[in-house]
Design goal:
Blueprint lengths: L4 H11 L20 H4 L45 E2 L5 E2 L16 E5 L19 E5 L2 E5 L15 E6 L13 E6 L2 E13 L5 E11 L1 H7 L11 E8 L5 E9 L6 E3 L2 E6 L5 E3 L12 E3 L2 E4 L4 E6 L4 E7 L2 E6 L2 E3 L4 E11 L3 H11 L6 E8 L2 H6 L2 E6 L4 E6 L5 E6 L2 E8 L9 E5 L11 E4 L3 E9 L7 E7 L23 E5 L3 E7 L1 E8 L7 E7 L4 E6 L9 E4 L15 H10 L4 E4 L9 H5 L4 H4 L1 E9 L5 E7 L18 H10 L6 E5 L9 H5 L1 E2 L4 E2 L11 E6 L8 H11 L5 E5 L13 E5 L9 H9 L3 E4 L3 E6 L2 E2 L3 E3 L4 E8 L6 E8 L2 E7 L10 E9 L6 E9 L12 E4 L2 E4 L19
Parallel strand pairs: 22-28, 29-35, 37-38, 40-43, 43-44, 49-56
Antiparallel strand pairs: 1-2, 3-4, 4-5, 5-6, 7-8, 7-13, 8-9, 9-10, 10-11, 11-21, 12-20, 13-19, 14-16, 15-18, 16-17, 17-21, 18-19, 22-25, 23-24, 23-26, 26-27, 29-32, 30-31, 30-33, 33-34, 36-45, 38-39, 39-40, 41-42, 45-46, 46-55, 47-48, 47-50, 50-53, 51-52, 51-54, 54-55, 54-56
Length: about 900
Amino acid sequence: MARSFWVSLILVACSARPEPLVRPELLAPSFDALAPDAVTTDTPLSDAPSPDATPPRADLHHPDTVETTAPDTLGDGFTPPDAELPSDAGELIIPPPPLDLTVRPGPGEVRAGRVRSPDELLDGPYTRGGVGDYKLYNSRVAFIIQDAGTTGVYRRYGGMPIDADVVRSEGAPGGSQLGDLFFGYNLRQFDARHVQVLSNGSDDDARIRVTGTDGDFPWLESFLAFLFPDRPMNLELTYDYVLGPDDDFLTIEVTVANPNAHHVAVRTHAVAFLMSTGLRAHFPGPGFDSRDHEGVFSWWSALGDRVTYGVWMQESELNMFMNYSDIMFGALIPFGLHPGESLPFFRYLFVTDRGLAHAESRLRELAAAPPLVALPGIVEADQEALRRGVRLHVVTSVGDHLTTARVGDDGAFELRLPPGSFELLAKADGYLPSPAVAVEIDGVEPTEPPAPVELILPSSTPFTLTVSDGAQYVPARISFIPVSGAPGNILPRIFGEERHPFGAALEIYSGTGVESGVIPRGEYRVWAMRGFEYERDMQVIEAADEPLELSFELERVVDTTGYLSTDTHVHGIHSPDSDVPDELRARTGLAEGLDVIMLTDHDGIFALSEALAAIPGGTDWAATVAGSEVTTYVYGHFNAFPLTPKPEELNQGFIDWFDADAPELFGRIRAAEPDPVVVMIAHPRSAPMAGYFNAVGLDIEEGTIKNPWNWSADFDAVEVFNGRCSGGRGEVVRDWFDLLNRGHLVSVGGGSDSHSTGRPVGLPRTYFGSSSTPRDFHPSELAAAFKELDVFISCGPFVRFEIGDARMGRLLVAPETLEAKVEIHAPSWMTLSDFRIIRNGEQEYRLPATEWPAAEGAICYSGTVALPLPDEDSWYVLEVRGSGNLRPLSSDEPYAITNPIFVDVDGDGLFNPPLPPYQGSQR
């Protein structure tokens, strides 16, 4: 298992050091600077150069102050073709003339230049290139290098590759889905200042040069600077991107120079891969199991939808010390530089559409590894499996995953393997794996072609299905669960194959209610579901020789008039630790029956508007809202919504937290929009770096706050439930009750915190007061509901709660009697056990479900409860509990809780809290 995020970074900052160079001859003659005694010298690392010797750094908050390639003399953001640019040595150079970057090079040709129109960019599932960036390409592969400037949150600066693909045939969709690749120098990054096209490829290799210095790494500094205070090293960094006419890889030549008058030591020479863009990272051994992606590896590679990437570092193996949800850090060889010295480093970025095995074979060739032996074969599979794509897995005799190859449309393959004993098996989505076949490679290239290895992929059963509500097709979640045993099509994680939650062989999130697919042969319970407001439909089927035609009907039985539902904590592909594409994320929200589908990606503002509109009928069922999880790694995470995506800004409106404490940050969040914004404390009892209440030292027993300088009550809601409701037994329930008791009248909150399809959205879900339909909903309604406390959280039941004429969030002034009106709704498949009315954090009333009077349909209880009149101002919430679980919708148990209703006993028109403010609270 991987270490925790926090522990891993602390350990590497304190002690991580990779093994010595295995190929020192590949470095410059000044390799002796890398000797261990050169890393620690008489000049401490903390001795920074004088301010006069440090070049001006980019303003992190004002990207337009970053120095770019040349003055904008054309008025369109581009340098005139004949403009003279300063070179590193100070002389003036004349850049090559610009080329039309839409022209397809022929064999033996290569082109490079600055992108001047969108049609010169790359396409694919995940791309970020824009006009003003730089492109290198030949007839085989293409790359986009980002322009200089402040461009990201985690990888702070430009000047790095951001898109990469093979050159596709005319009209074919692109496949680029490269995430962030960058290198670190102690706690600093490459701050790119200038970009120059040195060669456009007309007469030589294409070469683009990016120069700069070491820049601040605010993300790491925010929580590691207390160990190693960050100071500028004043390095001169040059990144040359080189592409030859016939290359299938990009050469990255990095030169690190020390212009200072003192020695500089780079003790932590890091490489980072932030690749949660739909890519599946692979290392020989642990394969695709990211939980074991720690250790020393020869290279990094990753398999995408229609593209595969590989990265090899010539000077050093990769000592991968952390993988946290595909946020991967590794250490390279540390080094030191005497005054005036420089060192070159060579890195190679491969891209191919021929699969992982081909990429890794090319990496082996480049690394001059022992020769590989060709092994041909054939996979017998039906046409549907070949159309979907068959993968061939190679496992060593000790169970390590060596590589994966893609099988051709005709089932043929050719592997190139090192000497050893292996097992091969084939797999396609929706199919059982083939029986394994053992092979032996003796390391000697055969004189005659070997007999092809034959594998047989078992056939699956095709199906079509529809889900309706009796009048129309409806979005739904459909789950195929084996009647007995575990699903045979689910392989161990090292294979990186399909996975489905709750023991399912197949899980479908349908945005339209009409689907087709294949399922391995066998007996299944097939469930069609749509959240908490519908009955479920289950059928037992036998998948055999004949295709299946399935139809399901879901009856909506819960009347939610006056409320809409949402999930206030959801992540997608724009978060560095989530790989769910926008289209799939929109379908998960539709299938779970959400009325409003929200995104709260880490440190960015994104919405699913386009993805939802692309699903037929999607906007009839749901609206969208943009939010953000403002993700400090020091004192907690904070969900903010509704927000407006701002495409022209960093991460579409990233709310910068690096230099702010919590009181200032809350103000920044509110200032981000002209309209009201909800600030919700996310998972407040997580570790201090992610949980605000732990970070400030909130102690509800003592009524104290240990770190009052970072405390602010300027938030609107608390995420009391994260990922599940757990029957209301969580610690944060008591925290919320204590906040109310001390006069902090904030809303209950809850969200799935889903980062993958393995954690369903809408569990828990938020119901908020609104008279709109999804078609005419406006995000301001959601903000207003939270501000007015007209919100309740549900892991199943739908409830209505009033006392007298006061609903949630309202104040009942000087009542003579108290009569609570309670309604509880649930579909027939949900088992409820009781409801309770809580006063000032303690149970005031409880009624077991066995004593509920008979009710009709989905109304489980409807009645009034007489409550004793208290002798002090009080607040009341309704809590509904259930038994069993919600499978296969969720493993949680049924539960719901409302926001409070306040009772002003003394008639002064105020709610006077029963407990004093927290001691130590300054703001």
